[in-house]
Prior knowledge:
The structure holds two protein chains of two kinds.
Chain A: H1 2-6, H2 11-27, H3 30-56, H4 64-80, H5 85-107, H6 112-132, E1 142-143, H7 154-182, H8 184-194, H9 196-201, H10 206-232, E2 234-235, H11 237-240, H12 243-256, H13 262-280, H14 288-302, H15 306-314
Antiparallel strand pairs in A: 1-2
Helix pairs in contact in A: 2-3, 2-7, 3-7, 3-10, 3-12, 3-13, 4-5, 4-10, 5-10, 7-8, 7-10, 8-10, 12-13, 12-15, 13-15
Chain B: H1 2-35, H2 42-59, H3 64-87, H4 95-117, E1 130-133, E2 136-139, H5 140-162, H6 164-174, H7 176-181, H8 186-208, H9 219-233, H10 238-258, H11 264-278
Helix pairs in contact in B: 1-5, 1-8, 1-9, 1-10, 2-3, 2-8, 2-9, 3-8, 5-6, 5-8, 6-8, 9-10, 9-11
Amino acid sequence: MKYWRSHLGLLLPLLLISGMILWPVLTGNVSNREIVFTILKAIALASSLNILLGYTGYVSFGHIVFYGFGGYIGLYLVNEQGWSIWMGMLAGGISSGTLAFLLGKAILRLRGAYFALATIGINEAMEAFINNFDLFGGPIGMTLNFSVYRAYGGAAQALSMSFYIMAVLTFVAIIVSHLVRTSKFGLGLQAIRENEDAAEVMGVVAPNAKTWAYILSAIIPGMVGVLFFFKNGNVEPHVAFPLHSSIELLVMVMLGGQGTVLGPILGALVYQGMRGYLVTSNIFKDIQLSVSGVLLLLIVLFIPAGAIGWLRHRFSALRRVLA
Amino acid sequence: MQQISLLLASLPDGILLGFVYGVAAMGLTLIWGVMNVINLAHGPIIALGMFGTFFIFIRMGINPYLGLLLVAILGLIIGVLIYFLAVHRVINAPHLSSLLATFSVNMIIIGLGTAALTTSPYNVDFNVGSFRLGSTVILVTRLIAAGIAILFTGGLYLFLYKTRPGKFIRAVTNNRAAAELMGVPSTRILALSFGLGTMLAAVSGALIATFFPFSILSGTSYELKSFVIGVLGGLGNPIGALFGGLILGVLEGSITAFMETSWVPVIEFGLFVVILLVRPYGLFGAKK
C-alpha cells in the first residue's frame, strides 16, 4: 500500500498519455495519429528537459542540440550503414548521452545565465559544424533511401510503427522523470536547484549529480530525433537544430509547471493545442507568434510556477495526486 | 601569398564592421551589467532599427544619418516601455523568468513584424561611393558607420562617467541595494539603462541597414554575434564590447581568407563557448 502511495503521482500522467494514444488507435484516423505524434514528441522532449530545468534548476536554451545530434548520427547509421531503426535509435541515444557527458563536464561549472548562453553557443556551433560536415551531407542534409522502409513492410507500415515507438518513448520519458523525482538522486538535484553550495555542504556531489541529470535529459531527445527524422525521411541542419524549438520546450515546461511530472505533459498538450488552433484560425493566423508571446509573458509575470505549481500551491489536498 | 592579399582585402572591411557589431553588443552588455538580464529581445530591436532606416530614407526621403537620431529616440522609448511591461516584475526572479520574459517580447515583435512586413528581404539602396586604399576598396557607408559607432561609444563613455544619471547607472551596476540606500531612484535608472541598451541595438541596426539587405528575422544573427562579442569583451563592460566587436570583425575578415565563409560561425561559437569556460569575465574584465 505504501509502495503504491509513493507512486500515486504517476497515475494521472500515465492515464493521460494512454488516453491520447488510444484516441487515434480507436478512431483509426491517420491525421489524428499525426497530431498525437506531434504532441507525444513534445511531451517526451519537454519531460526530458524538465529533468535538467525543473529538478536541477539549470536553464538549457539549446537543449534541441541533443535531438539534432542524436538524430543525425542515428539517421546516418540507418541510411548509409544499413542499421535497423532499433539500433539506430540506440546509437542516437548513446551518442547524445555521450555528448551530454562531455559537454556537462565542461559547461555545468557555469551557473545561471552563463550556462544558458553556453548552451545557445553550443547549439549554434553544432549546427554550423554539421552545415560544413560533408559526411552528413553538409547544408543539404540527408534524405532517407526509400528502400529502408521495405524492411518494415513499406512506408505506410513504417509510419504507423513510428507512432507506437514514439508512444513507448513517451512512457519511458515519463517514468524516468517520475523515478528521478522520487529518488534520492532526484532529491539531491532539487537541493542543487534550491542552493547549490548548501547542497554540497550537505553531501551532494554536485558535479556528478548535475552531469548525470544532463545525460539523462539528453538520451531520450537523441532517440526521438532518430525516430522523427526516420519518419520524416530527411534531415537538414536548420531543421535539426532550431533554436526556437528549444525555447518552445522551455515554454511548455513553464506553462505546465517546472519540477513536476505532470507539468511538462500538460504544458506540451496545451501549447501544441493552442498553436494548432492559432495557426488555423482566421483572426490569429498571421500574428500567432505574437499571441503566443503575449501568453508566455503573462505566464512568466503572473504564474511563474506554472499551472500545476499553482494548483499545488492553492489546493494542498491535490498535492498527493498532482506530482 | 595569395592569402595575404586576400587577407589585406577583407581585413579593413572586417574592422569597420566590427565597430558596428560593437555598438549592438554594447547595448546587450550594458543591460546585463546593470540588471543581470540577458535581453533576448535584442535581435528584433536591431531588426526594427533596420526598418527604421528603411522607412525614414526610402519612404520619407530623409538622409539616413539624420534619421539615426529619430531611430535612437524611438529605440530609447521602446526600451523603457519593454522594461516596464516585461522586465520590471521579474527583475529579482531567477534567470529563467527574465530570459523568458524578454523572449516573449522577441516573439511579439517578430510576430507583428512578420504580419506587417513579411519575411522577404528589404534593401536600402544607399550609396555614397567608395575609394581605394592600397589593394582594397573601402565603401564610404561602412567608414561613416564605423565613425558613428565610435561617436556613440564615446558618447556612452562620457554619459556613464561624467553625468549624474550615468554615475547612478554605474552605482546600480555595482550594488543596487547600496545605491538605493544612497537615494538613487533605482527603478528609473533600471528603465533608463534598458532604454539605452535598446537604443544602441536600434542604432546598430539602422547602420547595418545601410550596407546589408535585411528582413525582420535578420536581427537574430546579430543578436548571436552580440552574445559572442559581449563575452569577448566581458559581459557588463560596455566599453569592452567595442574591442570585442573589433576582434570579431577581424576574425570574420581574416577567417574568410583561409577557409570557406561557412566555417565562420563554427569558429565564432566555438570561441564563444571556450571563452565562457576559461574567462567568463571577458578578455579584458578583471576577475571578480
